[in-house]
# Entry
Amino acid sequence: MSETTIPLVFSKPAILRLARKAGVKSLCEDAYGAIDQLISQRVRELTHDSIEVVKVRGAKTVFSCDIAEALKIRGEIRAAGDQLPFNKAEVV
# Structure
């Protein structure tokens, strides 16, 4: 039987760029799939929580403050005004 591979959600170059920003020099082939799964799961969870925050607010558009509130609810930042892991200018 041939082994099927699950396609990556994030491209290998994108994963490598993120890893390099974190100080990684190189990645083995198996690491891409593992990192892709972790990032994908994290994005799904944070998106779901952010959407719930938006619903409570009675809006339809997700803003960075909604993501910050979702992180606050998850206990990952102390307050919505804390430094986010991204800059407003970077959010598209």
About this structure: Residues 13 and 46 are 23 Å apart (CA to CA). The chain has a mean pLDDT of 83. The chain has one domain: 12-90.
